[in-house]
Amino acid sequence: MLMLLADWLQQFEPSFRVFSYLTLRAILSTLTALLIAVLIGPRMIRWLQTMQIGQTVRDDGPQSHLAKSGTPTMGGLLILAAIVVSVLLWADLTNRYVWVTLSVVVGYGIIGFIDDYRKVVRKDPKGLIARWKYFWQSVIAIGVALYLYASQQDPAETALLVPFFKDVMPQMGLFFIVMTYFVIVGTSNAVNLTDGLDGLAIVPTVLVAGAFAIFAYTTGNINFSAYLNIPYLPLTSELVIVCTAIVGAGLGFLWFNTYPAMVFMGDVGSLALGGTLGIIAVLVRQEIVLVIMGGVFVVETLSVILQVGSFKLRGQRIFRMAPIHHHYELKGWPEPRVIVRFWIISIILVLVGLATLKLR
């Protein structure tokens, strides 16, 4: 929006051309989302407290979590508002990748909002019934996948990039639709499962989004893409603005979500952020790298799958409690120790993911 205004003002003052530079807009996108989150955060927390929208804590979990009962949740609304406003202000709104990403942000945010609303306002512990949650997640993911497949303008848009192998880039064909579906839905639910401790999910999300900003920039730049031997996809450059907006909004939310949390993001935040990371990975053709950089999300999800599978098949549990972050709490680790160590692991995994740009 402001980019269009700056383009119009260039005819009167050439210095407005500076706002066409992607790097400047990325910085402004980060700062805008951060300021929105920090400035609106206190008011939203007070409003959530007034509306008695508080977290319900399971009594079969770590006893230290019982003190968190009643802490305001649905703070993900703050994150999504900061992201959407920042992107609308600083991104090139003629870029279809921007609108595809925003559709996932808003669509999955609505699903999460309905789930949270049923849990904390209508006091329905089940929230949105699982099959309906997955149904609507699937509808959005399949719709996006079909659109991307039908609107592709370059074979590279549906090719699978294999990390560390520069000459391995098979065409997926219709399997692209299947891959896109599982990446979006899978990442959405993985982030949702990870969101169980103060700040545990938001920092890995910020780290992965920041890394994807680099992937989007290099993929959308003809010189860098040629140098790194990766496909040149010009539309991905504007995803830098989306990624930096996620970084800014996430850091602003962390201001209030750090231990001990003043507010939780709820499903409205975790489902939307996970789905957004998934669609960005698809658009920049880095689905496999997402598995590497989002390793914490992957392990959290696998711990739940293994726990449920083991209990159904053998009648025994592998972990003291799943997701795995609760397992370590029940082993006696203080919550801050679990959180920070998972953050450290995320930093390492993101660095490994970034290394795939050059090590090919």
Task: Explain the overall architecture.
- The protein is mainly alpha-helical and 360 residues long.
- The protein has one domain.
- It is globular, with a radius of gyration of 20 Å.
- It starts with a helix and ends in a 5-residue tail after the last helix.
- The mean pLDDT is 90.
List keywords for this structure.
360 residues; mainly alpha; globular
Query: pLDDT under 50 segments (min length 5)?
Result: none
Helix content: 55-70%
Tally of strands: 0
What is the ordering of alpha helices and beta strands? HHHHHHHHHHHHHH
Radius of gyration: 20 Å
Category by helix and strand content? mainly alpha
Distance between the ends: 38 Å
Quaternary form:
single chain
In short:
The chain has 14 helices and no strands. The chain is mainly α and 360 residues long.
Please give the structural blueprint.
Blueprint: H1 2-9, H2 22-50, H3 76-90, H4 96-120, H5 130-150, H6 175-194, H7 202-219, H8 222-228, H9 239-257, H10 266-283, H11 287-293, H12 295-314, H13 324-330, H14 335-355
Helix pairs in contact: 2-3, 2-9, 3-4, 3-9, 3-10, 4-5, 4-10, 5-6, 6-10, 6-12, 7-9, 7-10, 7-14, 10-11, 11-12, 11-14
